[in-house]
């Protein structure tokens, strides 16, 4: 295992996308826990947009279930199997869910440099003026 967020974690999300969604749209997540476990999950669609769940949600619940801290999170998206997977930064709600384990949790964000796919940012970098750490 390299850094909390490494290529192996990205690869776990890619494998889930290809396995679960060989056709059509894919939204998947892979999270790493402090002990090195990789937890994966998919988004939950619903007829009402507000009832849908982000791909990270299942793995976040799993981490709570096994009582392990999450240290890194990746979410990947593609519109169809013909499209390349793209990194989706964690939404604001998932950032709040991940901040339960502190602002050092690493989150994958896109990297548009040629030959690159993803880069890592901590929640603290994504939210330098986090509401629960005034003055940080
Ligand atoms: Zn989210």
SSE layout and pairing:
Blueprint: H1 7-20, E1 26-33, E2 38-42, H2 56-66, E3 70-78, E4 86-87, H3 92-98, E5 106-110, E6 118-122, H4 123-126
Parallel strand pairs: 3-5
Antiparallel strand pairs: 1-2, 1-3, 3-4, 5-6
Report on this model:
26% of the residues lie in helices and 25% in strands. The chain has 4 helices and 6 strands. The chain has helices at residues 7-20, 56-66, 92-98, 123-126, and strands spanning 26-33, 38-42, 70-78, 86-87, 106-110, 118-122. With 136 residues, the chain is an alpha+beta fold. It has one domain (7-126): Cytidine Deaminase, domain 2, CATH 3.40.140. The termini are far apart. It binds zinc ion. Zinc ion (ZN) binds next to helix 3.
């Amino acid at each position: 295992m390299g850094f909390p967020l490494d290529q192996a974690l990205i690869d776990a999300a890619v494998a889930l996308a290809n396995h679960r969604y060989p056709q059509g749209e894919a939204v998947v997540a892979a999270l790493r826990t402090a002990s090195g476990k990789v937890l994966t999950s998919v988004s939950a669609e619903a007829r009402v947009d507000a009832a849908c769940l982000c791909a990270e949600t299942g793995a976040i619940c799993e981490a709570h279930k096994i009582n392990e801290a999450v240290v890194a999170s990746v979410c990947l998206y593609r519109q169809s199997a013909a499209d390349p997977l793209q990194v989706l930064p964690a939404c604001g709600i998932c950032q709040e869910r991940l901040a339960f384990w502190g602002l050092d949790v690493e989150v994958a964000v896109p990297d548009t440099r040629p030959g690159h796919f993803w880069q890592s940012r901590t929640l603290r970098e994504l939210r330098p003026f986090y509401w629960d750490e005034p003055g940080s």
